[in-house]
């Protein structure tokens, strides 16, 4: 039984083209996942049974000044795909852990440091400044999820062409939400 990834159930799945939607055009980059806007510290749970294959830092002020430090957790789901739970503040699992659907794995982080966002920040970031500084960034990969690549940074892809193993998670998430 798949579980909605947040205990905060009113998070909305952005529709195609909306802020935070999959492959949203952000000017010089495209969005690799969907953003589920949720209050900071909302509980993040695993959608499926699976194995934690990676836990790493995702953002930090050393990389981009308007970022706070957050982490990503990649789970190889038993159904075969890889889920990347991004922009979490604290991870409660480690690489190699076997987990079950609905298991608490972390908390939503506040990825954006509003004090550091100014006119030089990308437009989509300025739009999020007051409204949505915290979110779960969720990616879905068929195989070989990418976290380190010259065209990948902070959940965005700096090219027009989409990586072939990256999947749009919108329908996957909708199918879970329908069953809630
Ligand atoms: Zn995102």
Automatic annotation (TrEMBL):
Residues 30-113 form the M23ase beta-sheet core domain. One of its GO terms (molecular function) is metalloendopeptidase activity. Pfam families: Peptidase_M23. It comes from the Archaea. InterPro entries: Cell_wall_metabolism_enzyme (IPR050570), Dup_hybrid_motif (IPR011055), M23ase_b-sheet_dom (IPR016047). PANTHER family: MUREIN HYDROLASE ACTIVATOR ENVC, PEPTIDASE-RELATED. This is Peptidase M23.
